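>> received
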Amino acid sequence: LSGHTAKGLCGALRPFSETLWAHKEGLVSLTDTVSERIRAHKDGLLRSSSDLVGIITETLSREQSNAEVLIVNVSALLFERQRVLADSLRNSLTLKLKIFIIFFLIFGAHGYVNSEATDISLLFLVISIAAYYVHRVSTAASPPVLFYKQSEWMSNLLELCPSLLLPYKPTLLWGWNGHIQTIMLGKIGRSINPALPLVRRSVTLEDGATVYYDTFEPPFKQVTATVIVAPGIANTSEKLYIKTFVRRCLVAGYRCVVLNHLGALRDYPLTSPRIFGYGHTAEIAAIVDICHKKYNTPKIIVGFSMGGNIVAKYLCEAPERQKMFAGGVTICQGYDINRSSAYLLSWERLARLYNWAITNGALKSTINRNAKYLYGRTKMYDQSEVAAASCLQDLDNCVMTKMYKFKNKEEMYADWSCARFLDNINIPIMMLNAVDDPIIAPVCSDVPIRIACQYEKVLHVQTQCGGHLGFYEGGWLIPNGFSWIDRTLVEYIEGVLTLSKHYDVFAEGGESEVDV
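>> returned
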């Protein structure tokens, strides 16, 4: 069978073979012609292939970049939708529990009002009060919400920061309320006042301004890092929230250098016709330069509230500055001053009331304390306009824009906001805010969320409560001496130093500071 099949195939192929053999010369000639033409045009073909590969590569790169941006935006949107859904669910459960509490409270009080006090009505009163506090504790004690781009580095960092993964438990009776936490910080500070030995020094800037800063050294430990601190608006190292944080740093073996904002110290008059600015970085730049020259240790920079905006802007407006730091932290800052200004003029979460309090308690007191220099040596400011100002925006119009030579407050706010520089970040940084902070505009949360989802060493932390710089924790009525951020920030600093293994190169040069 195989033999017959083979003979049949040979018979079928013989005519085809004879035809090819008859035209062999023509086929060879055609092959040679094609080969010659390919050789003649090989350079053009190679260039076309190279151009085509380049076009394909460029297109793929561009589309990859667009895809990455789209993924970041979608991730931020999903995080925001997840938060909104969680808030809606929590509000629904809260409403049901509130109705339950009110029903029991009314039913229990009804017996007393009608002189029908019974054990049942008393029981209803006790149950309603207990349910109220159970509700408050359950909603207040929750882990922070973390926004970040997934990476091995961030996973390792979070393992070193357990406070960011565990519930933050505010003081039981009042810590769940952002207004109370904010007012407590402003009026009382912390429940302890640690005694800290310091050395106060000064440095004079090019415009004649004298900047005072305080250095705190660990008394019994070798210094392993230097932490540079910028306090909140019109604040100094004398504020209790700064002192408790410094105390925790000293225990961990970190030297602390704290900037005292220009004009904020009571017994140190101005030497130039200006006070601090919301985003003016000349003072913090001078302190950092001195520390970089003097201390050959890893450096972390930390900013609270207005100081957080200054720190972030300082790091990102000139990215080469980041080489001096292992990492940074900002707490309760507003990111976009123009949007924050609009919020502070509204009555949402009593923002306008806080605006008035900051204007009269921080800004006006600083200006009036330095009135002899500001009003006596310059005619730029109208003292009657300052006295009549009822909000920060009024003061900015009549004082700050003239002091820093801006056309209007909107231009000044745009120039001083860190939001437009944050895309330049390339070192580890944690940006922490409380959802119930009545001073910071909720709409500004889109800025840190976007940055955290886009850069792998950026972490944005949102706690459900804490107010503005409060973050009290522990106890029923009297909180712990150290706050949640005191403990959490030191954990983060330790984690960053452990992972980064960052050491500054010692820069030779004389010190430009003067002991005070």
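>> The radius of gyration is 33 Å.
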